[in-house]
Amino acid sequence: MAQGRGGIRGARIGSGPMGESERGDLAPRTTVSFWCGNGHRTQISFAIEAVVPREWDCRSCGLPAGPDPDDVPVAPGHAPYKTHLGYVRQRRTQEDGEILLNEALAKLRGTI
């Protein structure tokens, strides 16, 4: 009795017979190494006629990597997380805040 499995095992659909390349030859390639600030090396293969980028993301840590191990690119800085109060202080001075607070308290007390 059949097990319910397909008759072809171990091959992908459309892969063709083993050992025969119906899709043609690969383009000639060159391998370029990129180094990040943590010292990780990433090797990428490019077609010979392709333009090699100046930066590539490191596969290990995600930092930007460059082709020169002695001159690695610097990661862009990220602004630290700001609270709501931090954004308010960015827009207003301490004196403006005290004036607004006193107005709000006066409204709550019913004096305005």
TrEMBL record:
Functional description taken from the UniProt entry: Binds to RNA polymerase (RNAP), stimulating transcription from principal, but not alternative sigma factor promoters.
Write down what this protein is called.
RNA polymerase-binding protein RbpA
Q: What Pfam families does this protein map onto?
A: RbpA
Q: Which family does it belong to?
A: Belongs to the RNA polymerase-binding protein RbpA family.
Which residues take part in binding Zn(2+)? 36, 40, 58, 61
Q: Where is this region: Disordered?
A: 1-26
Q: Which domain of life is it from?
A: Bacteria
Its source organism is Kitasatospora arboriphila
UniProt cofactor(s): Zn(2+)
Glycoprotein: is it a keyword of this entry? Answer: no
As to how many cofactors bind and how, the note says: Bind 1 Zn(2+) per subunit.
